[in-house]
Each structure stands twice: as structure tokens, then as C-alpha cells.
Write a structure and sequence with these properties.
- The protein is α/β, with parallel strands linked by helices.
- It has eleven helices and twelve strands.
- Strands 1, 2, 3, 4, 5, 6, 7, 8, 9 and 12 form a ten-stranded mixed sheet that branches. A two-stranded antiparallel sheet has the order 10-11.
- It is globular.
């Protein structure tokens, strides 16, 4: 039960108007719920944005009452009006900070973990961390799983470089490229620290990058955990953002660079429309300061 005490997951499920997309997403959502309930003791709290009571009733009928099952195990289900992702995320963060959990897992409604032997700790990460206790992760504030689908996400190459390190330890490395599909946050309220919340006026793509940037500005570490690998059950075609992702991301990064220019953040190539890369060297020098860029602790 230590996992249930220390970890709470806060999941946003947005009800799209497109019925074909909705059909695919609700199926993936049910698969996600079953995977988390089957593999972990993490309590699941659902924010169903734009769902009607009829949507909820039909979902429970079609998928064996999986939301009710999560509630019986300590979770919760909240029907709320349709809202933008960043506003749903802020409400999930607020609910987490008000809770007694040590760690909050923020998720979209299609995020699970790859779980074969080659995927390292996978679902075991949560009981391993719970057994180690908070002190073992003193310099880890925000972390997220490796994404095998992204450049640099080749976990097999990473693990083979030092098999013993990754087999025997939890390994975290500085990385601001947080993906909003799933990330884990320390309960800053319980730690008597500033609660990190993104600016609610930021209503374009890139709320995950904004959260990571705000966390670093507040003196928090943001790291990739190499012991877990993200699996998304919905393909990019059926995501809520659809096409034009690069253009949207560049627009977001330009705005974030403007918001944090006083902290040393800037675009690496501000005049190059084909570049969306943020230059963080000065930003790190000012905000990361003495915090470590890597944190390793033995598995229990």
C-alpha cells in the first residue's frame, strides 16, 4: 500500500466533437485504465473534460465499469465542462498539491508504459521508489519517461552503454524536453516549496514545455528517467493537435523564449523559420545553479 500512499495519478480526458476520433480515444482510454489498474497500486483520479453523464454511463457499460473500479480502489471521477488542455492540467496540478501524495503523475488519457523485460523497471518503478523513500530522490523534482519515438529515445543503445548502471539503479538526467502525455511532479506544498503552475494565459501548443521552463525558473530539477519508457495508445493522427505540429511548436517556443528572456532563455536561431530549438545555456546558468544534472540511486 506504500505506492497508493505516495503516488496519485491525475488523468485528463477531453471529449472531442469528432465522433470517429472520440471512438478511438475512448477505446484507448479504457485500455489505459485497465493497464494502470492491472499493473500498479497507483490511485487514479480522472478529470473528464466535456463529457456528458450519458458519455460516462455508456463508457462504463461498454468497458466493464473500469472507472467505477478505479473509484473503489481510492480514485475519483469528475465530470467538468470542456476546457483547454492547459486549464485542465492546472486543475489537476492544484488537486494534486492539495492532496497528501508525495508524487503526482500527470497524464493524458492514452499514456501507459512499455513493459517487457528490455524496458527496464517499467511498472515496477513505483513500488521501487516507494520502497526507497523520498530521501533517495532528494534532487529529483519533476521527471518523465523516456520516449522511444523521439530522437535520442533509443533506450536499448543507452542501456547497452552501461548495462549494470541501468539494471541496478534509477537514473535521472537533466532534460527540459518534458512531454505532457505523462510526467511526475513532487508535491511542492508538502515540501514547503513554491507550487509550480504554468501561466493560464498560455493557450497555444507547448504547455508541457512551459511547465518544465517554469519549474526550472523556480529552482526545480526537470529530468528524464531512463528506467521507464512511454507508450502512447493513440497515434499522432488521432491526437487532439492533429497536423501542423512543428509550426505550432515553433510558435510556442518563440513565445516561451519571450516570456523568460529575463532569465536568459532565447531561441537558438530566432530568424530561422525551420528551427524551433530553444537555447538554454544562460537560462541554466541563472536558474539551475548548484542543482545536479544527473541523479542516480540504487534500486531497492
Amino acid at each position: 500500500m506504500e505506492v497508493a500512499k505516495q503516488f496519485g495519478a491525475f488523468v485528463t480526458s477531453f471529449r472531442p466533437l469528432d465522433e470517429i476520433k472520440w471512438s478511438k480515444r475512448r477505446k484507448a482510454f479504457a485500455q489505459q485504465i485497465v493497464a494502470w489498474l492491472s499493473n500498479t497500486d497507483v490511485c487514479l483520479h480522472f478529470r473528464l473534460s466535456g463529457w456528458s453523464q450519458a458519455d460516462l454511463d455508456t463508457f462504463e457499460l461498454d468497458y466493464a465499469g473500469c472507472l467505477s473500479r478505479a473509484q473503489k480502489l481510492g480514485g475519483s471521477v469528475n465530470l467538468v465542462p470542456g476546457a483547454m488542455l492547459i486549464h485542465n492540467r492546472i486543475e489537476c496540478l492544484k488537486a494534486f498539491y492539495a492532496s497528501d501524495y508525495d508524487w503526482g503523475i500527470m497524464m493524458d488519457d492514452d499514456a501507459v508504459l512499455y513493459e517487457k523485460a528490455q524496458h527496464n523497471s517499467a511498472w515496477r518503478l513505483f513500488p521501487e521508489m516507494a520502497k526507497n523513500g523520498q530521501a533517495a530522490y532528494a534532487e529529483v523534482d519533476v521527471f518523465f519517461p523516456n520516449n522511444p519515438g523521439k530522437p535520442g529515445g533509443g533506450f536499448n543503445v543507452k542501456y547497452s552503454a552501461d548495462p549494470q548502471l541501468y539494471a541496478e539503479n534509477h537514473v535521472f538526467e537533466r532534460n527540459p524536453d518534458l512531454k505532457g502525455s505523462m510526467f511526475v511532479v513532487r508535491n511542492f506544498r508538502k515540501a514547503r516549496r513554491h507550487e509550480v503552475l504554468p501561466d493560464p494565459s498560455f493557450t497555444i501548443h507547448g504547455e508541457d514545455t512551459l511547465f518544465a521552463t517554469e519549474a526550472i525558473k523556480r529552482g526545480c530539477t526537470v529530468m528524464k528517467c531512463w528506467n521507464i519508457n512511454l507508450k502512447e495508445l493513440v497515434g499522432e493522427r488521432d491526437s487532439h493537435f492533429g497536423g501542423g505540429r512543428f509550426t505550432a511548436m515553433r510558435e510556442a517556443h518563440v513565445r516561451i523564449a519571450e516570456m523568460y528572456k529575463g532569465d536568459g532563455l532565447r531561441m537558438r536561431k530566432p530568424d530561422d523559420q525551420s528551427s524551433k530549438t530553444l537555447e538554454r545555456k544562460e537560462f541554466y546558468a541563472k536558474c539551475w545553479k548548484a542543482r545536479p544534472t544527473k541523479w542516480t540511486t540504487p534500486k531497492p
